TrEMBL record:
<comment type="function">
    <text>Cell wall formation.</text>
</comment>
<feature type="domain" description="FAD-binding PCMH-type">
    <location>
        <begin position="15"/>
        <end position="188"/>
    </location>
</feature>
<feature type="active site">
    <location>
        <position position="164"/>
    </location>
</feature>
<dbReference type="InterPro" id="IPR016166">
    <property type="entry name" value="FAD-bd_PCMH"/>
</dbReference>
<keyword id="KW-0573">Peptidoglycan synthesis</keyword>
<protein>
    <recommendedName>
        <fullName>UDP-N-acetylenolpyruvoylglucosamine reductase</fullName>
        <ecNumber>1.3.1.98</ecNumber>
    </recommendedName>
</protein>
<dbReference type="InterPro" id="IPR016167">
    <property type="entry name" value="FAD-bd_PCMH_sub1"/>
</dbReference>
<dbReference type="Pfam" id="PF02873">
    <property type="entry name" value="MurB_C"/>
</dbReference>
<dbReference type="InterPro" id="IPR006094">
    <property type="entry name" value="Oxid_FAD_bind_N"/>
</dbReference>
<keyword id="KW-0133">Cell shape</keyword>
<keyword id="KW-0274">FAD</keyword>
<comment type="similarity">
    <text>Belongs to the MurB family.</text>
</comment>
<dbReference type="InterPro" id="IPR003170">
    <property type="entry name" value="MurB"/>
</dbReference>
<keyword id="KW-0521">NADP</keyword>
<keyword id="KW-0132">Cell division</keyword>
<dbReference type="Pfam" id="PF01565">
    <property type="entry name" value="FAD_binding_4"/>
</dbReference>
<dbReference type="InterPro" id="IPR011601">
    <property type="entry name" value="MurB_C"/>
</dbReference>
Length: 338
């Protein structure tokens, strides 16, 4: 393992923003990570964890030891007639892991196809799409303490999952590095096709018999039709969370904006699509030099090339202010701002 100085991070974040790490290390095992953290040279030096770079907005150089956990491997750690528990390294690409499950007829995450990032980022963000959240299938999360270098195994309940939230984004933020996660997959699929355009897309595809592959391909088709490829246009997917408001506030807004969509939640509140709010506020397709709002999906902020992180933050704040003024609803960023 090498520790490199003044390492460029432009190719390690999907916005393609220019930034530099004072020091950078790529670790390929939990043991290697522990050795690095216990090295006297880095004991008291600030540290920053960078996974796939698909959910981060860099606004500056990182004056720290940037650690990238590139820990690979997928293995079945337990099996029954109905369930398989798969342990995957934090450095595995999330979509590649989904495809592994689909190809092995293991159900539970097919609706999460084509989400960018790594396995390690999935529990941190509690990623979700089309009626499924990763918390629904996570059994345990393994993470190493930045202070002691010790490995700890968190149960799903200990992770305190919420909507795009986990304990790793709050109480334990910057205190642990996720090295692996174990997922509980089913040999007997329960398909979730009632969300978004999945059912309609399946019909267009001519699918008459549901399968994991068919659902996955439908999700990928929808995502590709709406979301830009980060390899072509710099972006981090959905920039904002879908806001949750009270039923009373939703009814008031619905009276003013009859076409406002809303999805009832178990707690009695209503989730409103952030993309709809941003588009209605007139931001879809907006461009300001090298940055802007994607022309097909208002929820996605983009860097066309040469943009700066601080300009993207400024644009996001303009959008928040505009939506708040027009609808009285506060948007919060899903992307981590650095």
């Amino acid at each position: 393992m090498q520790v490199l100085s003044h390492f460029p991070l432009t190719n390690l974040n999907t916005f393609g923003l220019e930034a530099e790490a004072r020091y950078y290390a790529r670790v390929t095992s939990a043991g290697e990570l522990t050795s690095l953290l216990r090295d006297a040279r880095w004991k008291d030096f600030p540290k920053f964890v960078l996974g796939g770079g698909s959910n981060v907005l860099l606004t500056r150089d990182i004056n720290a030891l940037v650690i990238q956990p590139d820990i690979r491997g997928i293995e079945a750690v337990k099996e029954t007639n109905e369930t398989v528990w798969l342990k995957a390294g934090a450095g595995e690409g999330w979509h590649s892991f989904v495809m592994y499950c689909v190809n092995h007829n293991l159900a539970g995450i097919e609706n999460l196809s084509l989400i960018p990032g790594t396995v390690g980022a999935a529990p941190m963000q509690n990623i979700g799409a089309y009626g499924v959240e990763v918390k629904d299938v996570i059994e345990t999360v393994e993470a190493v303490s930045l202070d002691s270098g010790e490995l700890r195994i968190f149960s799903a309940s200990e992770c305190r999952f919420g909507y795009r939230e986990s304990i790793f984004k709050h109480e334990l933020k910057d205190r642990y590095i996720i090295t692996a996660a174990t997922f509980r997959l089913s040999r007997k699929p329960e398909f979730h096709v009632e969300y978004g355009d999945i059912q309609k897309t399946l019909e267009t595809m001519g699918v008459t018999e549901l399968s994991l592959k068919a659902v996955s391909e439908a999700v990928m088709h929808i995502r590709r039709s709406k979301l830009p490829d980060p390899a072509v246009i710099g972006n981090a997917g959905s920039f904002f969370k879908n806001p949750e408001i009270t039923r009373e506030d939703y009814e008031k807004s619905k009276a003013l904006f009859p076409d406002m969509p809303g999805y009832p939640l178990e707690n009695g509140n209503v989730k409103v699509p952030a993309g709809w709010l941003i588009e209605k506020a007139g931001w879809k397709g907006y461009r300001e030099g090298a940055i802007g709002v994607h022309e097909r999906q208002a929820l996605v902020l983009v860097n066309y090339g040469g943009g700066r992180g601080e300009d993207l933050i400024a644009l996001s704040r303009k959008i928040q202010s505009s939506v708040k003024q027009q609808f009285g609803i506060q948007l919060n960023a899903e992307v981590n701002l650095v």
